[in-house]
TrEMBL record:
The chain crosses the membrane at residues 30-48, 54-73. It comes from the Bacteria. The keyword Transmembrane helix applies. The keyword Membrane applies. Keywords: Membrane, Transmembrane, Transmembrane helix. This is Holin.
Amino acid sequence: MNFNYKGIALIPIVTLIVNIIKKAGVPSKFAPLVSLIIGLIFGILFLADSDVKQGILLGIIIGISASGLYSNGKELTRNISRKSN
């Protein structure tokens, strides 16, 4: 398994796509699932290197990482706004 710069670069892209989908009306409670699905798709399309199992595993890692990036960023924004008030 080779999780290189392409995999790392896909994490914020997945986060951005999930945020766009949420603004389109999908409830926030489905954001982790959407992130996982998009991560799976990207893993298979861009990282599989002729091994679908590897693409699925890397896609799961991307989806979970993107979900965590969003929730941690959201919490950081809340903390900063609380301290500035």
